[in-house]
């Protein structure tokens, strides 16, 4: 599965801890990330990550393009809901595309925890349901 990992600055420590905790599961998949998040995950959690631009420079949009092309299967995006972001429209667009394309998206640690465990148990029947409806 192709999995996108993204975190706003105040959530970077959380995503590093998450990546370390679930290293054994994440390492079985193809990981993608926005620039700074990806650099830190690669360096600090020792995972192979394909990096896009930093979020404010278009990274969210690049991940959005992968979703639009059906090339991204899961998004883990630790948003900071308490800090204004200069690229807020890009963030909204990315989350909207997840809904358009039925891509599971976790926007906080609690949901990411549930989602990654479901991934490990192969609890992803929604994919079959979607395929049947195409
Ligand atoms: O801003 C971001 C997502 O909206 C994240 O970008 P970075 O990973 O480059 O910090």
From TrEMBL:
The keyword Nucleotide-binding does not apply. The active site is at 60 (proton donor/acceptor). PROSITE patterns: METHYLGLYOXAL_SYNTH, MGS. Residues 1-134 form the MGS-like domain. SUPFAM superfamilies: Methylglyoxal synthase-like (SSF52335). Substrate binds at residues 8, 12, 34-37, 54-55, 87. It catalyses: dihydroxyacetone phosphate = methylglyoxal + phosphate. It is an enzyme of class 4 (lyase). Keywords: Lyase. One of its GO terms (cellular component) is cytosol. Its EC number is 4.2.3.3. Transmembrane segments: none annotated. Gene3D superfamilies: Methylglyoxal synthase-like domain. It comes from the Bacteria. InterPro entries: Methylgl_synth (IPR004363), Methylglyoxal_synth_AS (IPR018148), MGS-like_dom (IPR011607), MGS-like_dom_sf (IPR036914). GO terms for molecular function: methylglyoxal synthase activity. GO terms for biological process: methylglyoxal biosynthetic process. Belongs to the methylglyoxal synthase family. Catalyzes the formation of methylglyoxal from dihydroxyacetone phosphate. This is Methylglyoxal synthase. It comes from Halobacillus karajensis. The lineage of its organism: Bacteria, Bacillati, Bacillota, Bacilli, Bacillales. The gene is mgsA.
């Amino acid at each position: 599965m192709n999995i996108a990992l993204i975190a706003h600055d105040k959530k970077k420590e959380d995503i590093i801890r998450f990546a370390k905790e679930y290293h054994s599961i994440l390492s079985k998949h193809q990981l993608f990330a926005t620039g700074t998040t990806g650099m830190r995950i690669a360096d600090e959690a020792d995972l192979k990550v394909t990096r896009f631009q930093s979020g404010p420079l278009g990274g969210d949009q690049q991940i959005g393009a992968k979703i639009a092309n059906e090339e991204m299967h899961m998004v883990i995006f630790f948003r900071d809901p308490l800090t204004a972001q200069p690229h807020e429209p890009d963030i909204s667009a990315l989350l909207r595309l997840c809904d358009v394309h039925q891509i599971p998206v976790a926007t906080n640690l609690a949901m990411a925890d549930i989602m990654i465990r479901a991934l490990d148990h192969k609890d992803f029947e929604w994919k079959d349901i979607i395929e049947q409806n195409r």
